Automatic annotation (TrEMBL):
CDD domains: ST7
Stretches with biased composition (Low complexity): 68-78
Matches recorded under InterPro entries: ST7
The protein, known as: Suppressor of tumorigenicity 7 protein homolog isoform X5
Biological classification of the source: Eukaryota, Metazoa, Chordata, Craniata, Vertebrata
Biased composition (Polar residues): 79-88
Membrane topology recorded in Swiss-Prot or TrEMBL: Multi-pass membrane protein
Gene that this sequence comes from: LOC114857524
Annotated region described as Disordered, given as residue ranges: 67-88
Family: Belongs to the ST7 family.
Subcellular location field: Membrane
Keywords: Membrane, Transmembrane, Transmembrane helix
PANTHER family: SUPPRESSION OF TUMORIGENICITY 7, SUPPRESSOR OF TUMORIGENICITY 7 PROTEIN HOMOLOG
Species name: Betta splendens
Signal peptide: none
Top-level taxon: Eukaryota
């Protein structure tokens, strides 16, 4: 019985001509190409694979699975989307509200590692900020201020420090104390001592200029400068208290400062307040601050968006299970948490990798680019501990953050809840971050679905086979026979075993059937 079957297989293979192989491979290549073109067109138009979508939507329910994807509630966010899609200034660099101290923190890092955590571009922006906030046209009237005006323009740190000491020899100068606290002090306690001295000098100048501010434009500019100096000193003193563990004192100082100077929003003191309240685990007050600053008309930040997501995740994360959610679907609270995470990830897609420790952190720069890698580093550097403190929050983030990119197939052309992701972000981040030892994160590009890659490979393979068969028909015929023989070898082995086990009469009856 074995010989007739082998003879039939051999006869079938011998009757196949090279034209058959060319036609077979050509047809396969054509079909694969058509599938590839259709898949690519569908992916470009709808942002997903047609085969993958059909498999998930129709085959998975038949196999007992439940699609746990959460449709976005677009009706509740139309107002925010319409408002935030307005024309905005792209790639504007902002002062980091939580920037570290140069002498007590950045320089200590340099001493230990030998690496420079700040770029020249970042430090140059800081120098421009100092000249804007701490100087005015009337500085030449006071010798100490005139010296400090030159000091802020110095590139050499030692020259700046020497100029500050020179100014202090003439009189108590608030900006001189600021420079020494920022750059010369090697500990936070020493910086706090210098800032307290700066506070005394700054309050004296502020009261004096406040009385004279209406006497002319020169006095008005001087009062504006003294106001900036006083706000800066009080904010840095609050940050010193936070770093030294006196968090409640820091919260009180920040609240008082925001009440005293409500219009100076450029310092973003509310972000310092949010971080301190999270450290105290005072989530009710955190929600109250968010209710005031997470507004349509106000600019967003990673701190605002991710803190809002953390609070909503906190309500469900301790009991969240992806397996249970896939079986029963998401509850209303879980859906709200997932939508908040998607909103945060759309605003800044670089943060999750730092929070999930998929990418190593570095010291945050003194300036950040909103929605960029620099902002993600600055946020994760201070807020990672708060996410870890909420049980299950990072697990919920890990399970849901990548779903954001399914809702935004073309983030550089069209956004969902925010305006499209700025194209120039990567270039600006490379100027702000030390690329020598840090790989700048770029917008997560949407990977091609598996089926598009598979059909592309299949199309290329069959086209190559068709070409080889046309050029070398005899050789490809030998390869085809060898391949088919190898392919059928296990089947022949199984048939032989079955023939040896079953009685010949039974096998004869089965073959007749």
């Amino acid at each position: 019985m074995k010989k007739p079957r082998d003879a039939a297989v051999s006869m079938f293979l011998n009757t196949l001509t090279p034209k058959f192989y060319v036609a077979l491979t050509g047809t396969s290549s054509l079909i694969s190409g058509l599938i590839l073109i259709f898949e690519w067109w569908y992916f470009r138009k709808y942002g997903t694979s047609f085969i993958e979508q059909v498999s998930v939507s129709h085959l998975r329910p038949l196999l007992g699975g439940v699609d746990s994807s959460t449709p976005s509630n677009s009706n509740s966010t139309n107002g925010e989307a319409d408002s935030s899609r307005q024309s905005v200034s792209e790639c504007k660099v902002w002062r980091n509200p939580l920037n570290l101290f140069r002498g007590a923190e950045y320089n200590r890092y340099t001493w230990v590692t030998g690496r420079e955590p700040l770029t020249y571009y970042d430090m140059n922006l800081s120098a421009q900020d100092h000249q804007t906030f701490f100087t005015c046209d009337s500085d030449h009237l006071r010798p100490a201020d005139a010296i400090m005006q030159k000091a802020w323009r110095e590139r050499n740190p030692q020259a700046r420090i020497s100029a500050a000491h020179e100014a202090l020899e003439l009189e108590d100068c608030a900006t001189a104390y600021i420079l020494l606290a920022e750059e010369e002090a090697t500990t936070i306690m020493e910086a706090e001592r210098l800032f307290k001295q700066a506070l005394k000098a700054g309050e004296s100048c502020y009261r004096r200029s406040q009385q004279l501010q209406h006497h002319g434009t020169q006095y008005e500019a001087q009062h504006r400068r003294d106001t900036n100096v006083l706000v800066y000193i009080k904010r840095r003193l609050a940050m010193c208290s936070r770093k030294l563990g006196r968090t409640r004192e820091a919260v009180k100082m920040m609240r008082d400062l925001m009440k005293e100077f409500p219009l100076l929003s450029m310092f973003n003191i509310h972000e310092n307040l949010l971080e301190s309240l999270l450290e105290l685990q005072n989530y009710a007050d955190v929600q109250a601050v968010l209710a005031k600053y997470d507004d349509i008309s106000l600019p967003k930040s990673a701190t605002i968006c991710y803190t809002a997501a953390l609070l909503k995740a906190r309500a469900v994360s301790d009991k969240f299970s992806p397996e249970a959610a896939s079986r029963r679907g998401l509850s209303t609270a879980e859906m709200n948490a997932v939508e908040a995470i998607h909103r945060a990830v759309e605003f800044n897609p670089h943060v999750p990798k730092y929070l999930l420790e998929m990418k190593s952190l570095i010291l945050p720069p003194e300036h950040i680019l909103k929605r960029g890698d620099s902002e993600a580093i600055a946020y994760a550097f201070f807020h990672l501990q708060h996410w870890k403190r909420v049980e299950g929050a990072l697990n919920l983030l890990h399970c849901t953050w990548e779903g954001t990119f399914r809702m935004i197939p073309y983030p550089l052309e069209k956004g969902h809840l925010f305006y499209p992701y700025p194209i120039c972000t990567e270039t600006a981040d490379r100027e702000l971050l030390p690329t020598v030892f840090h790989e700048v994160s770029v917008y997560p590009k949407k990977e091609l679905p598996f089926f598009i890659l598979f059909t592309a490979g299949l199309c290329s393979f069959t086209a190559m086979l068709a070409l080889l068969t046309h050029q070398f028909p005899e050789l490809m015929g030998v390869f085809a026979k060898a391949f088919l023989s190898t392919l059928f070898a296990p089947l022949n082995f199984i048939m032989e075993k079955v023939e040896s086990i079953l009685p010949s009469s039974l096998w004869h009856q089965l073959t007749r059937i």
